[in-house]
Design a protein that fits this description.
Blueprint (H helix, E strand, L loop, with lengths): L1 E3 L8 H11 L8 E4 L5 H11 L4 E5 L3 H10 L3 E3 L5 H4 L10 H8 L4 E3 L5 H5 L6 E2 L5 H12 L2 H18 L2 H12 L7
Parallel strand pairs: 1-2, 2-3, 4-5, 5-6
Helix pairs in contact: 1-7
Length: about 190
């Protein structure tokens, strides 16, 4: 299992760690890698908690090449995002649609997340991924186990997710649409 995101409350890594401890009772050989940086007290506490949880590796900040390598080798991607007013009030910190979910989908990795921002629209209702209520470690653990034990569901979700990203989140497709909307093509300098 892989999760990628800044070590901030809105990414829900604390909920993921709790869910991981729960689901590991059923799947004791499961492992979790968390990629993300942060230097505040929350991030330090999260790193301590992760380092004390069997099966968890806290990888810290990583270059994009490492992120892709981790995604491509993952059996599952989880982002337990949740709305937190404190984070959303910071300029540029609102995750309407976390890019890493699109990256996981394009790598054909099944996704479990929470219906925050546009995530519900992106994943659909069990169409392209599984959704859990924000902050619900029990539901998250159940969804993780379901995907890790359901190859057919994984195949269906990842195929639909890849097609969705290819057809709807592609520069070659979207650029002409944006030019049509705004009427002025972008130029590079």
């Amino acid at each position: 299992i892989v999760s990628v995101g800044r070590l901030v409350p809105m990414k829900g890594h604390d909920v993921l760690l709790s869910a991981f401890r729960r689901m590991r009772q059923q799947l004791p050989t499961a492992s979790l890698s968390i990629i993300g940086g942060g230097e505040d007290q929350y991030a330090h506490q999260l790193r301590r908690l992760g380092s004390r949880t069997p099966g968890v590796t806290m990888l810290g900040e990583q270059p994009q090449s490492r992120v892709y390598a981790e995604l491509k080798s993952a059996d599952l991607f989880v982002l337990a995002c949740r709305p937190t007013q404190q984070e959303y009030e910071k300029p540029g910190r609102c995750d309407g649609l976390p890019t890493v979910i699109l990256e996981a989908m394009s790598c054909r990795v099944p996704v479990v997340s929470c219906p925050v921002g546009a995530v519900a629209e992106l994943l659909g209702n069990r169409e392209r991924g599984l959704l859990c209520p924000p902050g619900d470690d029990s539901a998250l653990a159940t969804a993780i186990v379901e995907l890790l034990l359901s190859p057919k569901l994984v195949s269906d979700l990842t195929t639909a997710a890849f097609i969705h990203v290819r057809d709807n989140h592609n520069l070659d497709v979207n650029y002409p649409k944006l030019v049509g909307i705004f009427g002025v093509p972008c130029t590079t300098t």
